[in-house]
Amino acid sequence: MLEQNEILQLNKKGWNRVAEQFFEGSFDVLKYGSYAPSEEQLNLLGEVQNRVILEIGCGSGHTLEYLANRGARELWGVDLSGKQIETARDVVSKLNAAVNLIESPMEEIAGLPMNYFDIALSVYALGWTVNLPKTLHNIYGSLKPGGIFVFSWEHPIHSVVEYHDEQLRFRRSYVTEGAEQHDSWRGTPIVMHNRKMSTFINTLIAAGFRIDQVIEDSNVADDDSVSPAKWYSGTKARMIPSTLIIQCHKPC
Ligand SMILES: C[S@@+](CC[C@H](N)C(=O)[O-])C[C@H]1O[C@@H](n2cnc3c(N)ncnc32)[C@H](O)[C@@H]1O
């Protein structure tokens, strides 16, 4: 298996290739993931007005735009992919807000201020880390005492189950963790990490966070227009959560 630095190099290349497939448009409702409840439903970030906010894995910058439009005072976005940061730079240049963008792996963020942020947020990016303890240590250190961290990621059960012959079945073990190499994820080689739900929770605790809420709910309308064979579908979401969302904080 590749070393962590080699995985980051491979994933950076991969993300630069697929970035365009993930470019968001502007939005008014912050979605935490497919079939997941939105920030408008959950209110996990609390008051955004005048807050200093860090986004880990900011992608095309549209979540930063959403936060700026809600009056955030200062925004920082970190992403591994130069292509994503380039797009985010264009998106935030149209905003009336102070935004710092850093092209960096979340595992090692040069220049990230300590004890600085009111809120840290990560939407479907944290699970890409090759080193979860180090990444959570960085986020914890960057928050002010009392600061909030909210992240969403594909639910670890959702990742192991696929729809086949009108049934959900396990495609791999839930309990076996570690790096998994994909030769052609969206057409490019990439390495993902398989982690259990308890690993996310216990690593947050080990980093010093206090957990406030763990959310596994799905919004599933009676809409079966999406084929159950798709990776995200209403059929699947009615049986297992699509997204894991955790809200926690750095104690005062
Ligand atoms: C699924 S996208 C989510 C982007 C954005 N948060 C959104 O909701 O549209 C995941 C992002 O994580 C970034 N990423 C992957 N591995 C990373 C790492 N080790 N450090 C920082 N960013 C990473 C990718 O470049 C990509 O922009």
TrEMBL record:
A Gene Ontology biological process term: methylation
Pfam families hit by this protein: Methyltransf_11 (PF08241)
Signal sequence segment: none
One Gene Ontology molecular-function label: methyltransferase activity
UniProt keyword Ligase present: no
Superkingdom of origin organism: Bacteria
Alphabetic keyword roster: Methyltransferase, Transferase
Transmembrane regions: none
Annotated ranges, domain Methyltransferase type: 54-151
Keyword Methyltransferase: yes
Protein name (Swiss-Prot/TrEMBL): Class I SAM-dependent methyltransferase
Natural source organism: Paenibacillus spongiae
